Request: fold
Amino acid sequence: MTPPTETRQTTVGIGGAAESTDMVLNIGPQHPSTHGVLRLRLVLDGERITHAEPVIGYMHRGAEKLFEARDYRQIIMLANRHDWLSAFSNELGVVLGVERMLGMEVPERAVWMRTLLAELNRVLNHLMFLGSYPLELGGITAVFYAFREREELQNVMEEISGGRMHYMFNRVGGLKEDLPAGWTARARAAVADVRSRMGVFDDLVLGNEIFRGRTRGVGVLSAEAVHAYGVSGPIARASGVDFDLRRDEPYLAYGELQDVLKVVTRDEGDCLARFECLLEQTHVSLALADACLDRLAELPPGPINQRLPKVLKAPEGHTYAWTENPLGINGYYLVSKGEKTPYRLKLRSASYNNIQALTELLPGTLVADMVAILGSMFFVVGDIDK
Reply:
């Protein structure tokens, strides 16, 4: 007798049933739209994102632990590199913290020079994102203009410091050395040239219907979310959070530049608002650079730094210094046991806090809008991982 044939049934998701199936999609860690080795773990329902988790740490170098094994001159090199687009500003926060511990007064010329170089570094940072963001949305032309303007400013920064990206020009007590002869005139000409050509971003990018269509009303970040996640910088101000350390807690020479310093804000909180804030803030930084050059021309010759002992030790205690870096607020918590190395130096970087907001921004949006939202957060992966 022939045994009965065994029957098996397999149910395959078809039709409407398939649409309710969640799919986990990894964007990165190697992906052109992530500005480096950042990984996004997305849960999708069809083409809509239901959950987003930034996975960080792929570039972690343990800089905070290395601070504890380097003296106060050497840690400047380590702090210089986490946000490679803002090297001068990164150095600045460290030396301000150490100078505060020492109770050290910096010469006036050094204060104004630091302010000038910090604003030139801010313009360099912003130009990179003004060029790369349209590139991520399919517009290749803007990045060529951005790099042309960056090159003009890079030339004057390289002339004064010897470095193209990692300037290593700050020192505890001032700056490395005085200005080369004729440098201020060349810097003024570079600032004027860049300002005269900034209109190309209004015409080429903001005037582009496709760019506006991809960014207006997309990735709206509320002011409440900004406060909840500790978001800062142009991203926070694009959501109506009117806060800028240069105005609200002035450091360096910003207290004397309040008539030039304009804090740029928007209320929409979308991708377009973030780009507009970045672009307008670049204009403000160019104006601040001109004001610093005017003031330097009026100052009499004088020292650019303080003489330091051969072995520099900070007194026992702790202090906190924070600065308005190009991407947002950087904080430096320094603890000293009276030795030549920090007992602890905790770094609060802007990108680390800003990227957390993606967990709130991305759910509910389409996969097609993910790159537009991600690019508008203006982060550097090294600044997240440290």
Q: What stands out?
A: The beta strands are 22-27, 39-45, 48-55, 170-171, 174-175, 317-325, 328-336, 344-348. Residues 10-18 have pLDDT under 50 and may be disordered. The first helix runs from residue 16 to 19. The first strand starts at residue 22 and ends at 27.
